């Protein structure tokens, strides 16, 4: 079987992260990200579920996730996944969208899976330049040309891509986002949302695509990522973000992000040494 390899690089000038997975068999549970994801399947076939829609993604497909798009995927062909992707935070996307469209408004991808060879012609060279540590400005050219095509062909206002949430569910989310570092129980969340347990669970899953507990774990992982990027040790990041122990934290982080917390931290610790941030695992 092909050896599993995971590599990630952060391009500080562009403010985006590029990563590559090769020989991956790991399934990814239902989760979401706080940033935009633009990914490309180089080999393998996977079943992807995103916002209650089912897809089969395979070689040549580009996947597009908005912040908050809940999704899960598993291998479908008995083989492994080769995949490359870039992550773009909301603040960076806002700047890029203004540069491309002239309007300082967050875009939203209208489709999650596409097959577009012209998109690939910009995405793959951009990814390669970042992974190779290039400092040439063709990286920025490819990024702007890529987003120009994506926004013209596959976008709509970001607000239209977010399911409408009842005020009670918004209250529950706000409570978890403010108290994620604490040991929470379902009763607390229900009291804050003013809903019964059964009503909260049904309504939350319908509106958000995940359970309240899964939402809380995503919030915690997002906060832990920021701490690791700042150099916080994994054991301290686990304690500061409400995980019961480091083993629990490591397992969740790896299943959501595809990298161990220590490896993710090391990517950012290499910044002063290389001008970029890179690490590979086998």
Question: What does this protein structure show overall?
Answer:
α4 runs parallel beside α7 (about 210-230). A hairpin with a 4-residue loop joins β1 and β2 (about 15-25). The longest helix is centred in the last third of the chain and has 18 residues, at about 210-230. The chain has 11 helices and 13 strands. With about 280 residues, it is α+β, with helices and mostly antiparallel strands. A 7-stranded antiparallel sheet has the order 11-7-4-9-2-1-13, with helices on both faces. A 4-stranded antiparallel sheet has the order 3-8-5-6. A two-stranded antiparallel sheet has the order 10-12.
- Number-wise, the strands total 13
Q: What global shape is seen?
A: globular
Instruction: Return Rg in Å.
Output: 19 Å
Low-confidence stretches: 276-282
Distance between the termini: 13 Å
Beta strand %: 15-25%
Widest sheet, order of strands: 11-7-4-9-2-1-13
Helix/strand class? alpha+beta
Report the total helices.
11
Tell me which oligomeric state these chains represent: single chain
Mean pLDDT: 89
From the structure above, extract its key features.
single chain, 282 residues, alpha+beta, 7-stranded antiparallel β-sheet, 4-stranded antiparallel β-sheet, 11 helices, 13 strands, 45% helix, globular, disordered C terminus
């Amino acid at each position: 079987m092909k050896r599993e390899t995971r590599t990630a690089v952060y391009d500080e000038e562009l403010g985006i992260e590029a990563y590559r997975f090769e020989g991956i068999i790991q399934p990814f549970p239902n989760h979401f990200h706080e940033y935009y994801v633009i990914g490309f399947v180089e080999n393998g076939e996977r079943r992807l579920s995103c916002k209650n829609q089912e897809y089969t993604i395979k070689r040549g497909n580009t996947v597009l996730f908005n912040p908050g798009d809940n999704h899960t995927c598993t291998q479908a062909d008995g083989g492994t996944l080769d995949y490359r992707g870039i992550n773009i935070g909301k603040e960076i996307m806002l700047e890029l969208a203004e540069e491309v469209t002239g309007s300082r408004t967050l875009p939203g991808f209208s489709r999650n899976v596409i097959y577009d060879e012209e998109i690939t012609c910009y995405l793959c060279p951009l990814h390669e330049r970042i992974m190779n540590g290039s400092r040439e400005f063709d990286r920025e050219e490819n990024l702007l040309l890529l987003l120009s095509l994506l926004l013209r062909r596959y976008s709509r206002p970001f607000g239209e891509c977010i399911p409408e949430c009842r005020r009670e569910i918004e209250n529950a989310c706000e409570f978890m986002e403010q108290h994620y570092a604490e040991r929470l129980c379902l009763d607390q969340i229900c009291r804050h949302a003013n809903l019964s347990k059964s009503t909260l669970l049904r309504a939350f899953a319908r509106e958000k695509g995940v359970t309240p507990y899964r939402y809380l774990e995503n919030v915690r992982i997002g906060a832990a990522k920021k701490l690791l990027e700042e150099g916080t040790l994994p054991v301290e990041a686990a304690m500061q973000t409400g995980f019961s122990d480091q083993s629990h934290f490591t397992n969740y982080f790896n299943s959501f992000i595809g990298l161990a917390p220590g490896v993710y931290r090391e990517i950012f610790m290499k910044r002063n040494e290389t001008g970029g941030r890179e690490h590979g695992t086998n």
